[in-house]
Amino acid sequence: MTKIIVLLLALSIFAISCSYQHRHLIGDGPQSGVELTRKQWYALWGLVPVNDVNVTELAGNSENYEVYSRRSAGDVFINLITGLVSFTSRTVTVTK
After folding, report:
1. pLDDT by residue (tens digit) across 51-95?
2. Which site among 2, 32, 46, 71 is 20 to 30 Å from 83 CA-CA?
């Protein structure tokens, strides 16, 4: 029983530490500081996208913006709870 608890604890620590982030500057990067944030949801532990976060739509007609996608602390919490039923999320922010 102790081995199972240690294994579950190790897997939990690994899952929490697997954070990632990506930043993409388009054009000259953000100019006005306006931010739009959306959640991207996946099923089957990230294999199947549930919704579509359209970055071009969020940027509007702006030619200069930044796309920042990450797993935030809130996402990690959601993933720990819903990971048991195979849903995960990430946060996508577009700054114009």
Report:
1. 999 999 999 889 999 999 988 777 777 777 776 667 888 899 999
2. 2
